[in-house]
Amino acid sequence: MVKDNFNYSVSVDCVIFGYDDINLKVLLIKRGVNPYKEFWALPGDLVHPKESIEDAVDRVLVDLTGLGNVYTQQVKTFGDIGRHPLGRVFTISHYSLIKINQYELSPLNKNNSPSSFASEAKWHDINRIGELAFDHNKIFASCKAHLVQSVQSKPVGFELLPEKFTLSQLQNLYEIILEKKFDKRNFRKKINSMKLLVDTGKIQKSVSHRPAKLFQFNKVKYLKLKKSGFSFEI
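RESULT FIELD:
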């Protein structure tokens, strides 16, 4: 009985959200092997016996997508019976939110790595992912909920914007991630009340509409306010 308890495997699955200044996307791989051959899936693989969870995540992203130096966070462990057709596998989900233009997907299967079972890696609109392999739709939904909660309670969204941005760009970002429309006046009133933006004194250039003011996020001030109990809330 004790021996049977060790007949399990552990894997990691990565939900990498990317923002391209217009839409929110998720990075998927097309499986080139069975099970679920030709299905789109989250980048993931079994954890090697002498490998840490963090190292497994790094390896999976490099081998299956070409992405390196991506900061991820653990979200939840999934272990339903039958979630993997080849045996009992517990998977630890991780998520990240990155700017797509700061990363480049590498051609796959050219390094002859035995773990490079992905035939393709591609960014997908989060609302057009269809049916994924295994229970990856469930994992994606869980990480998406975690992302929504994070951006509502922490100013992580500012990291996806240019160093200098307009209030319209900021509002558009939060509307995309939270999938809701904000009243323009109320949104700006809320943001300005936090006093976390610095007016750069500059305006947009080379735009077809009336140039808007450019702002910067005051991260130093936010960290000081956070120590005093300040709560960021959108």
